[in-house]
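Here is one chain, start to finish.
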Amino acid sequence: MPVFGLRILLGIALGFVASGPCKGPAQKRDRPLPRSVAEYPHAADRFLVLVRQQLAAEDPLQAEQQILCEGERMSRTLGDREAAERIRSALDTAYRRKKDSVALPGISRALAGHALGTEGHVCDSLIAAADSVDPIVPVRQRTP
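Its structure:
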């Protein structure tokens, strides 16, 4: 996924979350689940963990780079459109508590003025490390 698209997606998601987190149970889904959920049910798990860790990270900038690279890893496995949908779904549940919304402006300030990306070899070592401990692999479907 191009870094610009991922940054916009994350920015929009953070804006939605910051404007109204923790208002009660999730609403009914307007969209069907992404098609990759059945084949890759855990593809967004690591992404979600990284987003949650960023809330308490000493260096939100480093955490952001890991998040961007995880989004790139998902795109390589699932494709750009499917990865974007899975990221959108993960961000719907990432910020669960009211104190999470308090941390978001601090993260935004820490990221302001910095240019991060996934181009070239920026993510190679992070993706390799993630693949070695938590590969994105399809689940085996039961045969009837």
